[in-house]
Write a structure and sequence with these properties.
This protein has 488 residues and is an alpha+beta fold. The chain is built from ten helices and 29 strands. α3 runs antiparallel to α6 and α7 packs antiparallel against α10.
C-alpha cells in the first residue's frame, strides 16, 4: 500500500511538471479585424480550480479544395479553462515567417473542453499555395503560450505536399504592407518655418494611421507589385555602402513619404522613397526590416528597388488627402473659376520669381542670405506656363473669415511672403495678377496655390489646389527657361 501511494505521488508530481502541448489552427469566414476583436476577449484571467495537465494536439492538413488547421483537447486532468486562438496564413510563394503571408482566416474559443476540437478552414481558391498556422493559448491563469507550424504546401485540391524551401526568398513591397500588421502608418512632413531667417524645413511631421483595408489599399495600388532586391551591406563596395547609408539617413529627414509597419512577432519595417543616390545604387526605394531570431537576437535586412521618380509625389499627395478626410478638412467653396480665366490676352509684362537658394548657416556659423532669380517670360514662355495652369481651379476667399482658428488674411499673406515661386503678370489694361505656389498651410486649408487679382479699382483673393506632380513639372519648366539664360 505504501509503495502504491509513493507511485501515485510520483505520477502527480510528473503531471505538475508537464507543460501543455498545443498546435495551431485557423479559420472561419469572418474578417481578420472582427476576429481579432473576438480573440482579444478570449484571454481574460480565469477563476476557479486549476487543471494539472492538458494535452492539446495540433494538425494542419488539406482536402477537398480547402486547408484546415485544428486544435484538439485530447486530455485534461482536473477541471481547467483552456483558451485557444488560431490563425491560418497563406502565400503564393514560400515564406518562413508568417508576417509575410496573408491572414486567410482566424478563430478562437474561450474554453476548449476535453474531447472537443476547434477547427478553421480556408479555400485553396483553385490554386496551390503555401500555408502556415499559428496558435496562442492559455490554460487557467498560466502565461499565454504560442506555437507556429511548419510551412506546408497544398495543391489546388488541398492535397498536402512537401514544401521546398528556396535558397533565397523573393520579397515584394506588398509583403511589408500587410493588413494583419499590428500597426501601420504613414509619416508625412509639413513645413516648419523659421520666420527670423526665412528658412523652411521638414522638421515637423504628421502620422496618418492606415487603420482600414481601404486606406492601406490606396498605398498598395500606388506602389503596385514591386519586386525588391536584398541589399547585403557585407557584400557591397565602400561606395555602395556609403551611398546606402547616406540615402537612408537623408530620407529620415527629407523624404516626403515614409511608411512604418509593426508586426505581431515584434518585427518592424520602414519604407522610404527618396532619390539621392540612384546613380550609384540604381535604387530610390528602401526598406529596412528588423526582426528577431529564435534565440532573441535582433537582426536586420535591407531591400531596395528603383521606381518612377514621381511615385513619391503621388504617395505623399494620397496621404495628404487621407489625412484631410480623416480630420474632415475640406475647401467649402461653392463657386470655382479656371485660373486661366483670370488672365487677359494682351500681356504687358510677365515675371516668375524663384528662390534658388534658401538661407543657410555656413561653416563659420554666419547666415547666408536668400537668393532669388527674377525670370522674365516672353509671350511664348508665358503661354507655356498658362498651359500648365489650365487645369487649376481656384475659389474666391473671404479675407475676414477664419480656417481652423487662423485668419484667412494671415494665411494668405504668409503663403505669399514665404512662397518660393511667384508669378507676376501685368496686362495692357492695367490689371495685374500674382500667383504664389507654396502650401505651408495645405494640410489645414486644402490649398497650395494663391492668387491676388487687382483690376485697379478693387482686389480679389483666390486659393486652389495644384497636384504635386503638376507643380514640379511647372517648376522644371521655369528652371529650364532660367538655365537657358544662365545657370542655377
Amino acid at each position: 500500500m505504501i509503495k502504491l501511494k509513493k507511485k501515485l505521488m510520483c505520477v502527480a508530481a510528473m503531471m505538475l511538471a508537464v507543460v501543455p502541448c498545443v498546435s495551431v489552427a485557423a479559420c472561419g469566414n469572418g474578417t481578420a479585424e472582427s476576429n481579432r476583436k473576438e480573440q482579444a476577449s478570449y484571454v481574460n484571467e480565469p477563476s476557479g480550480p486549476l487543471g494539472l495537465y492538458t494535452d492539446l494536439q495540433f494538425s494542419l492538413d488539406g482536402e477537398n479544395g480547402k486547408v484546415t488547421a485544428s486544435v484538439n483537447n485530447k486530455f485534461t486532468l482536473f477541471p481547467s479553462t483552456v483558451t485557444v486562438n488560431i490563425e491560418l496564413y497563406r502565400s503564393d510563394v514560400y515564406r518562413e515567417d508568417f508576417t509575410f503571408m496573408s491572414l486567410a482566416a482566424s478563430n478562437g474559443v474561450r474554453d476548449l473542453d476535453q474531447g472537443e476540437t476547434v477547427s478553421a478552414s480556408a479555400s485553396t481558391e483553385g490554386k496551390g499555395s503555401y500555408w502556415k498556422a499559428r496558435a496562442y493559448y492559455r490554460v487557467d491563469n498560466k502565461p499565454q503560450q504560442k506555437k507556429i507550424s511548419e510551412t506546408i504546401y497544398c495543391s489546388a485540391d488541398g492535397t498536402k505536399a512537401p514544401a521546398t524551401k528556396p535558397e533565397t526568398e523573393e520579397f515584394y513591397i506588398s509583403d511589408f504592407l500587410q493588413e494583419n500588421a499590428k500597426r501601420i502608418y504613414s509619416e508625412i512632413p509639413y513645413y516648419h518655418t523659421d520666420y527670423e531667417y526665412n528658412v523652411m524645413n521638414f522638421w515637423n511631421s504628421l502620422n496618418v494611421q492606415l487603420e482600414n483595408k481601404e486606406e492601406l489599399q490606396i498605398v498598395k495600388d500606388l506602389f503596385g507589385e514591386i519586386k525588391l532586391k536584398e541589399f547585403d551591406l557585407d557584400n557591397k563596395s565602400d561606395d555602395e555602402v556609403n551611398a546606402f547609408h547616406s540615402a537612408t539617413l537623408n530620407s529620415v529627414y527629407k523624404s516626403i513619404f515614409k511608411v512604418f509597419a509593426e508586426f505581431e512577432n515584434g518585427s518592424k519595417a520602414i519604407i522610404y522613397v527618396y532619390d539621392c543616390a540612384s546613380d550609384i545604387l540604381n535604387a530610390n526605394l528602401f526598406v529596412r526590416y528588423s526582426y528577431f531570431e529564435n534565440d532573441g537576437t535582433k537582426k536586420f535586412k535591407n531591400f531596395v528597388a528603383l521606381v518612377d521618380g514621381n511615385l513619391q509625389l503621388r504617395l505623399h499627395e494620397a496621404m495628404e488627402v487621407t489625412y484631410r478626410d480623416k480630420n474632415d478638412i475640406s475647401n467649402s467653396a461653392t463657386e470655382w473659376n479656371d485660373l486661366n480665366d483670370l488672365f487677359y490676352e494682351t500681356v504687358y509684362d510677365a515675371r516668375w520669381d524663384m528662390v534658388i537658394r534658401r538661407p543657410y548657416f555656413d561653416a563659420d556659423g554666419i547666415i547666408q542670405p536668400l537668393k532669388t532669380a527674377n525670370i522674365y517670360l516672353t509671350g511664348k514662355q508665358f503661354n507655356e506656363v498658362k498651359t500648365y495652369l489650365g487645369t487649376v481651379r481656384v475659389a474666391e476667399l473671404n479675407m475676414d473669415t477664419e480656417i481652423k482658428g487662423i485668419k484667412v488674411s494671415e494665411i494668405f499673406n504668409t503663403e505669399f511672403k514665404y512662397a518660393p515661386n511667384i508669378l507676376s503678370v501685368k496686362f495692357a489694361n492695367d490689371c495685374s495678377i500674382e500667383v504664389a505656389v507654396n502650401g505651408m498651410y495645405k494640410l489645414a486649408t486644402n490649398a497650395n496655390i494663391y492668387v491676388h487679382y487687382n483690376d485697379g479699382i478693387s482686389e480679389k483673393y483666390y486659393s486652389g489646389i495644384i497636384s504635386n506632380e503638376l507643380k514640379n513639372s511647372l517648376i522644371d519648366l521655369i528652371k529650364n527657361i532660367y538655365k537657358n539664360r544662365g545657370s542655377l
